[in-house]
Design a protein that fits this description.
Keywords: Membrane, Transmembrane, Transmembrane helix. Its main location: membrane. Pfam families: AA_permease_2. GO terms for molecular function: L-amino acid transmembrane transporter activity. This protein starts with 7 loop residues before the first helix and ends in a 12-residue tail after the last helix. α7 runs antiparallel to α8. It has 291 residues and is mainly alpha-helical. The chain is built from ten helices and two strands.
Length: 291
């Protein structure tokens, strides 16, 4: 989304740093205020959220309604940010040709907005609100997201290190906007911690986690889902082309009049691969000389 920001590099360097500092300071002060106003024993004995205990202790029971509004406002802001960012991710996945009905996900008709990814996210959010029952089912679905997220984030950190190493070996100039090495390593270590620590059983035994059944079930299911996706991709991109005597090639196509384009993965017979490669560049666009 940096291409939608005016002067993105100086803007991100200045505003992103300021935003993180402000957010960290406010978050830190909120924690200090909570423990300064509420004794530790009350927090330990209470089964309510810590914010509810803080508001009732500091401002009285009538102030809890104000807390509900603050939670609603915070959730709405987070919903907007997640909806935009993850919808863009879905659209970019589709643009690489890895999702069926590519044109549907990429098209910005009729409002100049990719409706398909937004509808998908809306559907999942609505399902999470109305479908899972209380207790185990809801907690399991929420926890199921965390472990694959940590895997992706760790892979992103490793990928960034590999890209920097490759750029250094090829003498490619440094990017104008880059994160410090120390922060990359710290981020990667944090993700490794999130991948390792959940496997340690809780103190009360293997059934004493946030769910009534085996505490690591959500991690096993998450890994299983990712493994299934990997097997599907390997069969689709490696095994089936070998059996069918064809190769997968990417083609760039225009989706609508708003400038949206995408990649379409085509099955090119091996006998015509050389001809295809000669007529298209690496991105799948038709070479000018080939017409």
């Amino acid at each position: 989304m940096a291409n939608e920001i005016k002067n993105p590099i100086p803007t991100l360097k200045r505003n992103a740093t300021a935003s993180l500092l402000i957010f960290f300071s406010l978050y830190f002060l909120c924690n200090i205020a909570s423990f300064a106003a509420v004794p530790k024993d009350i927090f330990l004995e209470s089964k309510e959220l810590s914010d509810a205990v803080f508001f009732r202790t500091a401002f009285g029971s009538s102030a809890e309604s104000a807390l509900n509004f603050c939670v609603l406002l915070s959730s709405f802001g987070n919903l907007l940010a997640v909806l935009i960012s993850q919808s863009r991710q879905i659209r970019e996945f589709a643009r690489q040709g890895v999702l069926p009905w590519t044109e549907f996900w990429v098209s910005t008709k009729p409002f100049g907005t990719p409706i398909g990814p937004y509808l998908l996210k809306w559907g999942f959010i609505f399902l999470m609100i109305v479908a899972p029952p209380a207790c185990d089912a809801f907690q399991f679905v929420v926890s199921l997201k965390t472990y694959p997220d940590a895997i992706f984030h760790a892979a992103m950190g490793v990928g960034l290190l590999l890209i920097r190493r490759r750029r250094s070996r090829s003498n490619t100039p440094r990017s104008n906007f880059r994160v410090w090495w120390a922060l990359v390593i710290l981020y990667l270590l944090a993700q490794v911690f999130l991948l390792v620590m959940p496997w340690i059983p809780p103190e009360g035994g293997i059934y004493a986690g946030t769910i009534s059944f085996l505490w690591c079930t959500y991690m096993i299911v998450g890994i299983g889902i990712m493994a299934t996706c990997g097997i599907y991709y390997y069969l689709w991109m490696k095994v089936l082309p070998r059996w069918g005597n064809y190769s997968i090639r990417s083609q760039v196509i225009s989706v609508d009049d708003n400038g949206a384009n995408t990649h379409r993965l085509l099955r090119v017979p091996n006998s015509k691969v050389s001809e295809w490669d000669a007529a298209h560049d690496d991105l799948g666009r038709v070479c000018p000389l080939s017409g």
